[in-house]
Amino acid sequence: MRVNFPMDVTTLLLSPDWKGGPLVVLHNKLGRPPSAMLGKNHIWLLPFVKEFPSKIPSGYFITDVYLFLDALFNKNVFHPDPKNPMETRAELAAEEAVKTKRCLQALRYLWRNAKEASHCPRVQMLKDYLAPSPLQERNRDHRPLQDSDTEGEGPADVNIEVVEDSPNSPEPSENGDNECGDSEHDSGDEGHGEESHGEEEGDSYKGRVMQVAERVDSSVPHKEVADTLSDSDESSLKAPTLRLDDCHASPSSPVASEHSQQSQESDPDMRDSQVGSGWLGKFYAKYGRFGKDENTDPNLPRCVVEGDTQGMLDHIRATLVGGNAELEEHPLMDSYIDHCWNALMTYGKYVFSTLKSERHFYDFVGDEKAQEAKPAVLRSSQEANKASTLNTGFRDALNLMKLGKAADEADEECSITPAPKKPRLSDEIAQGLEITPPPVVGMQSAKAMAKLKKQDMGKKSQAEPKRARKVFKGSSESNRAEDGERARVKSFKGYDLSDLPEAALPFRNGVYKGNHSYTVTMGEAAFEILCKHGAYVIKRCADPSQKPASAQVTWSRFGGACNAWVEACQRAGVMSSESS
């Protein structure tokens, strides 16, 4: 079974990139699948059509087939959601079995109406394998009207007598005797053996004939009724009661043609289910598959039909949110919309139904969380220098827009306030130096006393500069520590942040709990910088009573980290007064 699948399908199901999804795709869950959907799902219908050409297998059997297929592909066909413990492989297989059975029913419906000349060659290939149902053929052979025709070949005069005895007969019995004279002559002695028939057979036959008589139109003469009851099977199918259309009516029957013309004039759109499908092909060729007014599938949204990418993105967001506040405020919603935009630009509108499914969204979230566990990939110095060179001009323009107003004011204060003078070592030594002669012990010469004084002064002069230098060094280190707390760095736990504006950089000695993100503040506004995903998240606006329309601003969507920072500040209300 696995060998019969196309190579591309086998490669897809065995690849590690396959995360599960619907096998049989149906746009409408309630209506009958159209021919286009049958052509798209012909891979899954072909095995069942080959094995069961004359009937449709049960849903339980199709479920077992899909479970067996999952086992052949090393359980890689169905991927239950780990967040939903109630979802199992059997449940996913049952869902595919229901859709497969609906497609098989629609295929047999099309085959009964038109066995040839399908618009889709794949559907025509499936039709070629189908055969009539033996159960349907057996039921058709045992219909009451056909039994009366086959069993009534011998006692044809019984039909005549029943019709003549009918109270609705307006004419005498001469017509019945004249019409059935040949049948009596042909039957010979069988006509005289009427009394030998059992009562049960006569009663049942009489009841069937009475049923036929009641169905006959009152405007038709009973002479034609006798003709229909005495003719062969072929002529009985042309009776007015069984007439379907002009294609089945006899051209020599004026009543049939008149009746068909009246029915067509009264309701031209009223057609029987057994009429040939030639008119259907002409209708498709002239108006398309979906009617006179629409040439596209009405089940698809208008944005998909028109190819509006932004409309499809809005429809995907509205479908996923659906009044769910948790999904609306999900931190990865904007990242998923960017993923959808890339998928639509790459593969077109054919992946729209997959992108708007909630299961695909959670698969995307799971992949993103799995990537967070991987070590961060540092950018090379060459790439960092190239990115910094490209964004140098924008940083200069950003500074001109007075983004860091507080930083500019601090620079002005630093330029006006004079720096404190460093104390000179000679002053400190002169203030703290006290020369005291040592006590004289015993008899010492003047030369020895002078030498001793000189040694004492040298020791004190060497000790005082060391103390002064040590005090000054400590004061400079404390100033540097204070400056380091306010300084910003261009890297964060392995991430290169050289492309970010200065206001979005982290502090050197800041305390940050996360490994992939940190928070910066600008007045009342607070922003979270997502280093891994490349985005800004507005946690709090400048006005706490306001909320941004979209809290997440992705760098790639706005052409870089600096452009995205300007957009984030505008949404938070930080740059509204300065940029105007």
TrEMBL record:
Biased segments, Basic and acidic residues type: 137-146, 182-196, 214-226, 453-466
Cellular-component GO terms for this entry: ribosome
Record key words, sorted: Ribonucleoprotein, Ribosomal protein
Biased composition regions of type Polar residues, renumbered to the chain: 250-265
Segments of this protein annotated with the region Disordered: 131-276, 452-486
Protein name: 30S ribosomal protein S6
